[in-house]
């Protein structure tokens, strides 16, 4: 059966990617020409599946050839700020997996790329190598190692250790992991090809725990789903799973890293921390098994798309600890559109993403330092408004968070802080446990200091406004025009 599947996907992969592949280095009489082409098509498919790019873009990301240093494809996915490295292996019999020796070569190539050592890469790759090296050196970029084959969906013990050890080395003790792996076997390749990524015909199987059914006005199910199932969805369908969402995965953001960390360190608490996901589908088919019980229902959802919760699913897909993922429970709603009026699906998508956005600065409301500063100001008759509100009005006896943050940043004397205020004050609230936030708000920051800095800032701004008002526009540049 496995060899039959291999034969079935052969022609489709070639039709998709061969026209765009650079095959000049493979001689027409090469006895392994077909095998080499298929391996390159497979590498391109990995990029296509995971990035959501075009067939042409995926094919052009292939590095395979002489002196590729073990890397068969490399691609920068701007939507997730990640570099994807691929090793591919075409296995005719449909079983087995890449050998540890092959994986070691792949890891060496990735290591050289990260260390920006181009010595072992052919000159034909220098341009693309330089581009990938530039992406890797950019803060916030993550690395995903992908091993794809027409064999098993897992690696053998020694091969897995080669990859896992390298990922552990890259991530170190940093809770915000920058490296992850994805193993794609024949099962995932076959399923991925069965679903056209550009169409809304994704069909997913799911076991919904503690489920309930809402019959009207439009049918829907809700319940729980485990994290491992969500990971399998993402590996199998990639970005086609979120084709209807207003945003695809945003990559290694602070929130997404927190999702991954919660799944690893506190899987039993995940349900309490996460808002869950909303899925729309054209119809649902329920298996008769366990029909009398609501503890677990086996469903197949056709025309499925996640309209809210894409970050949850894509982040869980990057967690390598499958045992922990199996313990994760995520709230899920499935809304069926088959009998709904036209446009209802779009309305569901829009309204599910219209809730007032929770910004990083909103979490300041939980900071004990802020509460202390407010109390100290209150004793002096000053109203410090640090909780976001539409009625925050600075007066002679009142100030608010953004104004105080700006004043304290300028008062440090550090020009870098003033620049950060000007280019984006949100950076100060990105992590309330670290600088630059902690530089401004810490036990040494008294209420008096905060308000006095604010008063001084107001005086400086008034002085600048007065100077600008009395300055001709021709000489306005020095004053900020």
Please give a handful of descriptors for the protein shown.
481 residues; alpha/beta; Restriction Endonuclease; 4-stranded mixed β-sheet
Find the count of extended strands (DSSP E, 2+ residues): 13
Overall SS class:
alpha/beta
Strand order of the largest sheet: 8-9-5-6-11-7-10
Low-confidence residue ranges: none
Q: Remind me, CATH topology of the largest domain?
A: Restriction Endonuclease
| Count, helices | 18
How many domains? Answer: 3
CATH class of the largest domain: Alpha Beta
Distance between the termini: 72 Å
| Average pLDDT | 86
Rg from C-alpha positions?
A: 27 Å
Shape: globular
CATH architecture of the largest domain: 3-Layer(aba) Sandwich
**For the report, how would you describe the main beta sheet?**
7 strands, mixed
Strand content: 15-25%
Helical content (DSSP H or I, runs of 4+): 40-55%
What does this entry look like structurally?
By secondary structure, the protein is α/β, with parallel strands linked by helices. It has three domains: 2-192, Restriction Endonuclease, CATH 3.40.91; 197-352, no CATH class; 360-479, no CATH class. It has 18 helices and 13 strands. The protein has a seven-stranded mixed sheet with strand order 8-9-5-6-11-7-10, with helices on both faces. Strands 1-2-3-4 form a four-stranded mixed sheet, with helices on both faces. The radius of gyration is 27 Å and the shape is globular. The termini are far apart. The relative contact order is 0.08.
């Amino acid at each position: 059966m496995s060899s039959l599947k291999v034969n079935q996907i052969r022609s489709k992969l070639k039709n998709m990617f061969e026209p765009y592949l650079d095959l000049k280095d493979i001689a027409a009489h090469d006895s392994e020409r077909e095998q080499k082409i298929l391996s390159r098509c497979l590498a391109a498919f990995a990029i296509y599946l995971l990035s959501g790019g075009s067939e042409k873009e995926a094919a052009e990301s292939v590095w395979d050839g002489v002196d590729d240093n073990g890397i068969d494809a490399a691609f920068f996915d701007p939507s997730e700020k990640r570099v994807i490295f691929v090793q591919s292996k075409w296995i005719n019999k449909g079983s087995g997996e890449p050998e540890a020796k092959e994986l070691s070569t792949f890891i060496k190539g990735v290591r050289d790329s990260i260390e920006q050592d181009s010595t072992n890469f052919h000159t034909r790759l220098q341009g693309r190598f330089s581009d990938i090296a530039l992406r890797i050196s950019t803060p916030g970029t993550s690395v995903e190692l992908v091993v794809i084959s027409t064999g098993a969906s897992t690696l053998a013990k020694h091969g897995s250790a080669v990859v896992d050890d390298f990922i552990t080395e890259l991530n170190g003790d940093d809770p915000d992991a920058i490296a992850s792996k994805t193993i794609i076997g024949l099962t995932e390749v076959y399923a991925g090809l069965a679903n056209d990524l550009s169409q809304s015909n994704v069909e997913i199987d799911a076991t919904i725990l503690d489920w309930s059914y809402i019959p009207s006005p439009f049918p829907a199910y809700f319940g729980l789903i485990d994290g491992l199932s969500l990971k399998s969805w993402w590996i199998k369908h990639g970005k086609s799973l979120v084709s209807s969402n207003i945003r695809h995965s945003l990559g290694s953001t602070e929130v997404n890293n927190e999702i991954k960390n919660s799944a690893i360190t506190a899987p039993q608490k995940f349900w309490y921390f996460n808002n869950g996901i909303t899925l729309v589908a054209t119809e649902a088919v329920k298996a008769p098994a366990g029909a009398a019980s609501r503890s677990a229902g086996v469903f197949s959802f056709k025309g499925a798309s996640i309209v809210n919760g894409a970050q949850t699913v894509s982040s869980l897909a990057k967690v390598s600890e499958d045992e922990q993922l199996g313990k994760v429970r995520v709230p899920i709603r499935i809304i069926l559109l088959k009998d709904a009026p036209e446009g209802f699906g779009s309305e569901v998508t829009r309204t599910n993403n219209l809730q007032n956005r929770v910004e990083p600065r909103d979490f300041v409301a939980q900071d004990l330092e802020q509460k202390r500063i407010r109390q100290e100001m209150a004793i002096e008759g000053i109203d410090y408004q640090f909780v976001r509100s539409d009625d925050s009005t600075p007066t002679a006896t009142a100030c608010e968070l953004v104004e105080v943050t700006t004043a304290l940043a300028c008062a440090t004397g550090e020009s870098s802080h003033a620049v950060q205020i000007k280019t984006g004050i949100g950076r100060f609230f990105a992590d309330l446990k670290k600088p630059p936030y902690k530089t401004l708000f810490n036990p040494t920051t008294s209420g008096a200091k905060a308000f006095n800095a604010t008063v001084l800032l107001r005086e400086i701004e008034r002085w600048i406004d007065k100077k600008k008002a009395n300055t001709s526009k021709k000489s306005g540049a020095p004053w900020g025009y």
